Amino acid sequence: MLFVLRYRNGQPEPLDLELVREVLAPYIVAADEDLMNGVLIRTPDGHEVDVDVNEMCVAVSRFPPGRFFDVLAELVDRLGASVTPSDRPVILREETDRAHLPAEAGEGATVVAMTGPVLEGYLSGS
Questions:
Q1: Among 12, 13, 14, 15, residue whose Cα is nearest residue 102
Q2: How far apart are CA 28 and CA 21, in angstroms?
Q3: pTM more than 0.90
Q4: Residues 6+ positions from 59 with CB-CB distance below 8 Å
């Protein structure tokens, strides 16, 4: 499972939901107006992914290899957010983001270039 969160002063900060909509819009197959009851996206390589959205977090429980990571990287980068995988330390866009994480999360956090291939490689262990 992956969580996209934006931290400021050690606390999660509300996401810009209009920006979330803008990034996901080209891929949305099914969603309600406010995105809060789940969003189904289809990536350019044909994979469908269920995305949960709320004002504090974007979460994905199952994600395919491939172009999904391009969408994820764009979302994280444009939101100024980080990725919190359920089984690994927090993934940062840039070193300056570490100062905004809770202290315990910042210690193990890793900076990874926000491109689909690099993010996928890091999360898949390759």
A1: 12
A2: 9
A3: yes
A4: 1, 2, 3, 4, 51, 52
Q: Which amino acid is at 18?
A: E
CA 98 to chain centre: 16
Cβ-Cβ contacts under 8 Å for 2 (sequence gap 6 or more)? 59, 60, 63, 72, 83, 84, 85, 86, 123
Domain that holds residue 82: 2-124
Q: Are 49 and 64 a contacting pair, CB within 8 Å? A: yes
Number of domains in the chain: 1
Give the Cβ contact number of residue 77 at 10 Å.
16
pLDDT digits (tens, 9 = 90+) for 51-70: 999 999 999 999 899 999 99
CA dist., res. 49 & res. 42, Å (int): 6
Residues 6+ apart with CB under 8 A from 75: 4, 20, 23, 24, 58, 81
Distance CA 70, CA 4 (A): 14
